[in-house]
# Entry
Amino acid sequence: MVLNGCLIAALLWLNISVLKGYRYPKEMAVDLSFPLKGGTYYIGGGGNSRWINNHNAFPPQDFALDILRLNSMGNRAWGIWPSELSAYTIYGDSVYSPCSEEIILAVDGFPDLTPPTRDSENPAGNHVVVSCKGVEALLAHLMAGSVAVSKNDTVDAGDIIGRVGNSGNTTQPHLHLHLERNGPPGKILNGDGVPATFNNRFLVRNSVFWGIGNENSLFRTHPGDK
# Structure
């Protein structure tokens, strides 16, 4: 009975920890345009708990999202862990600015790596930082040579800023997005994490949705999502 009681208590604690990941400080959230379109997307990591978002262990990335695209079979790639980058459905997809403001930082020149090789010394790889509504939005792991903006450029929401790649500290092609506030301007991973919403929806791990347009009004979540 003692053992069963301990197991029940552990499972209750785990479930509470996971459910916590669905809650977020709404007063802090910044609503953005979704940075991808034309596909069915899946959140591989996201939410306000490290049980559903491994980035949550690092304060600047508390609410970070890792976004993948699903193919016609409902998988992120053709194969379990293919080494060919083109086998990953999201690889090469256009990435759009999530807001209409200024480019704070634009970095290109890092190679796309063969999965599961990582570049831990340059964690963001090729990336763009956009000033968005009082926060800085980092869009990371972009394709080598694809960054289409420069520092101090002004962009509108929906302008192409690059393409999804596999550069930096990543094991497979995906788009990493997180928001920071109160850090040194243009210096990533040095601020406070801020939650992002899209059409006032907070996305968490296993969310499946359609990015069928770049305006929030065209963002659609899976009918089963709440």
The helical segments are 2-20.
